[in-house]
Amino acid sequence: MAAYGLYTHIASNKFRSMLLLAGLFALVYVLVYAGALIAEAVINGDETVLHYLRRAFYDLKVAAPVATVVAATWIVIAYFFHQSMIDAVTGGHDVTRQEQPRLYNLLENLCISRGITMPKLKIMESPALNAFATGLNPRQYSVTVTTGLLNALDDQEIEAVLGHELTHIKNGDVQLMVVAVIIAGVVGFFGELFFRLFTNFSWSSGSGGSWSSGSSSSRSSSSSNDSKSSGGGAVIVIIIAVVLIVVAWLLSQVVKLALSRSREYLADAGSVELTKNPDAMISALRKIENRGELPGATSAVMELCVDNPREGFADLFATHPSVQSRVDALVKFAGGHDPGPLPLSADEAEEPDTQADQQGVRPPPRQGPWNDVGGAASPPPLPAPSSAGTASSNPIGNRVSNPLGNSLGPWGRH
């Protein structure tokens, strides 16, 4: 991605959201078709593959309106209720200037400096160091900060984190990721539904090569010799259906996680552009590193956070790039200084399960490849420092020319 990518990313996010919506419905229809294949094989197990494919296509045309209504309903529910659902999971609550003057003033000053409407400010009671932005329209926009982050970071570092979350809002990343989560949710729902229906039936070669319910009585075996070779088409279409379900699920996850990882680099860059302080963003990331796990939070909530820590093999399925790669990008392209990883204290080094037990909350299990999929992402280049700037003078804040002739970043001209 070229240096001007931070600016053009704002416009492209709307286009990407439309593609995701189109992909949502396309993947749902693929899953409905796979379900129709399974249903046809269960109902009649002694037809040819071509017969099943044609019948399933006819079934798809009949079921398409229902699938469309279900997917649209899911989107509407997410649009109106996602914030309340997130608050219910995390325990976040609104705060006023009187309750949190330090945090409120930092956010208000950032918004005033760029002439944007201040989002709602929420606090989550948790020792974890994290923050996230939510909302699908200006009336819903909110930034949630944990008490752990508020206590551990200084004002400049908190300002950098707030700038990171404001950039997510400004770039439309919140809407983008909510749509991406909806894709994964709808596809996962239909995929699990079809698998559950399929596993309730068992193949019986003695019943004409058909599928029968596990609770039904076995049929007479007198016709087994006449149908010994029947049902091959049903087996093939079942395999096709399973492949379609798995591929559709994988594609939804790949899109969601690739977008999630790339947006974090862009939000880091936007924060530096907004605050004029790359070192504060780096310092905040180092303090948050390995300290951001929210006990009891779902994977969908963790995807919205500043950091979603993963370890070892799970990094291949991460929603966020590693802190090290994000810091490296800020050092290379923003001229920041990396103090290096901060050692964990004895309490911080405890296993997340132990910490959660002490709080009376069980954390969600680490996600494996069936729940999160995605590979390592390369950071898009941040805007290069101006030749007149120094490493400590926030190079991203300076104007940099680009082939399109546009100002850099989501925050316009400086």
From TrEMBL:
Family that this chain belongs to: Belongs to the peptidase M48B family.
Keywords for this protein: Cell membrane, Hydrolase, Membrane, Metal-binding, Metalloprotease, Protease, Transmembrane, Transmembrane helix, Zinc
Localisation: Cell membrane
Record bears the keyword Metal-binding: yes
Biased composition (Low complexity): 212-230
Domain Peptidase M48: residue ranges: 98-332
E.C. numbers: 3.4.24.-
Compositionally biased region (Polar residues): 394-405
GO biological process: proteolysis
Broad enzyme group: hydrolase
Region of interest called Disordered, as start-end residue ranges on this chain: 206-230, 337-414
Lipid bilayer topology: Multi-pass membrane protein
Details of cofactor binding: Binds 1 zinc ion per subunit.
Binding site for Zn(2+): 164, 168, 264
Active-site residues from the entry: 165
Names of the cofactor(s): Zn(2+)
Signal peptide: none
Transmembrane intervals: 19-42, 62-81, 176-198, 231-251
Organism annotation: Bradyrhizobium canariense
Chief location category: membrane
Keyword Metal-binding: yes
Gene that produces this protein: htpX
Name of the protein in question: Protease HtpX homolog
UniProt GO MF annotations: metalloendopeptidase activity; zinc ion binding
